[in-house]
Task: inverse folding
């Protein structure tokens, strides 16, 4: 039986890479502190000088200003500050008023979003908000309001593209150019746990309790027959593994190289694009065509509304069609490694999970220690809840998801810097 490994941002985070939205935005604000306070997203108007130490984002900046008894007002694209009488006496230092040039960036900052899937969901939420907006002013024609909505959608897409551009620059500069991602020199000392997970199903892997990961007895019998054949002919090596990478980095390259050195049949697909690859550009947007509002969006005779839907980016290369060929070719088990399985990839994940050849879904969850209670916590339940949203047939979902006692936490390592 084959394996399809779904790789998400949590995989990079498990390698100690600062690739979360929180990492990106903290770095962005740190650069703002150290710059002339001007870029594509925001600008500062001098009002009083601020020591930006320990102010990593908008909320910390606001809290800092509040230390001077300032009232913080959020308005359309701007932050205003009001001071008491002491400001007139010169007892307060000068600071800056923050003005947003990118309204979408302002929204996600005010919501204190920390995950990339939430950024994609917020984009879709704003798109639907524009479509569902109604004006009480009946004196304006239908054509007028259609034009107004079209302008708003174009603005939203432009602002969303700006965030994608800045994020891509961040990944190239701070991740690809800063960490040893695809070097195999350090392999034996830091990557063996991941390597063991990424191997295909084999009698030589010494995997325990594998039978319990499949509810269908025919699947178990087929694997046992394959194991017997493999013992008689160790070079048989019939099982395949496909790595479906939703990240943009090259972290997986080291594993692919090592698997191929062991003559294991492995393919790596960067389904959402790869950095510095003109033939496989960064695909960042929304991918839930099962949503009730999608049909309304599709019926609008304006392609601008569909610009950031992932399905149309999948058609830019052969990765998606090759994925379909793979899942059609034979039975497979899905391994989830670092992917939240959120709604922004619903169409693609539904195609995989409800496919008849998908026989089992095993989750490698994130585990951490609560700093307050010192208790171990994990996101296994959250991931399985997200997986359930991609199933129309819930009975099928319960049959396929491997229970928690048979799943494991994702290993945690730290890749060295260059």
Result:
């Amino acid at each position: 039986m084959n394996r399809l490994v779904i790789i998400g941002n949590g995989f990079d985070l498990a390698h100690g890479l600062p690739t979360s939205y929180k990492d990106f935005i903290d770095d962005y604000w740190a650069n703002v502190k150290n710059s002339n306070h001007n870029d594509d997203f925001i600008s500062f108007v001098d009002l009083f000088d601020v020591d930006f130490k320990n102010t990593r984002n908008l909320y910390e900046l606001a809290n800092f200003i509040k230390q001077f008894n300032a009232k913080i007002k959020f308005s359309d694209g701007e932050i205003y500050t009001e001071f008491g009488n002491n400001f007139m006496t010169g007892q307060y230092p000068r600071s800056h008023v923050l003005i947003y040039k990118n309204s979408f960036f302002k929204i996600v900052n005010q919501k204190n979003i920390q995950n990339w899937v939430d950024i994609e969901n917020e984009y879709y939420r704003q798109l639907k908000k524009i479509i569902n907006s109604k004006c009480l002013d009946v004196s304006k024609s239908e054509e007028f309001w259609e034009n107004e909505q079209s302008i708003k959608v174009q603005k939203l897409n432009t602002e969303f593209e700006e965030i994608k551009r800045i994020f891509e620059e961040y990944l190239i500069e701070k991740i690809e150019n800063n960490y040893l991602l695809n070097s195999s020199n350090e392999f034996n000392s830091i990557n063996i746990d991941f390597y063991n997970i990424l191997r295909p199903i084999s009698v030589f892997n010494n995997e325990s309790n594998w039978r319990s990961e499949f509810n269908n007895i025919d699947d178990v019998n087929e694997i046992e027959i394959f194991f017997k054949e493999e013992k008689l002919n160790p070079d048989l090596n019939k099982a395949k593994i496909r790595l479906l990478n939703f990240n943009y980095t090259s972290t997986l390259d080291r594993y692919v190289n090592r698997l191929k050195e062991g003559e294991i049949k492995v393919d790596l697909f960067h389904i959402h694009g790869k950095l510095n690859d003109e033939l496989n550009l960064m695909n960042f947007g929304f991918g839930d065509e099962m949503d009730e509002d999608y049909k309304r969006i599709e019926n609008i005779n304006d392609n601008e509304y569909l610009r950031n839907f992932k399905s149309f980016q999948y058609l830019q290369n052969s990765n998606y069609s090759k994925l379909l060929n793979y899942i059609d070719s034979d039975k497979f088990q899905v391994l989830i490694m670092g992917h939240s399985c959120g709604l922004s990839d619903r169409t693609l994940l539904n195609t995989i999970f409800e496919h008849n050849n998908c026989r089992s879904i095993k989750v490698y969850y994130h585990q951490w220690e609560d700093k307050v209670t010192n208790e171990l916590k994990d996101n296994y339940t959250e991931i399985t809840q997200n997986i359930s949203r991609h199933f129309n047939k819930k009975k099928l979902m319960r049959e396929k998801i491997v229970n928690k006692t048979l799943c494991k936490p994702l290993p945690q390592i730290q890749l060295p810097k260059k």
About this structure: The longest helix spans residues 142-176. The chain has a mean pLDDT of 84.
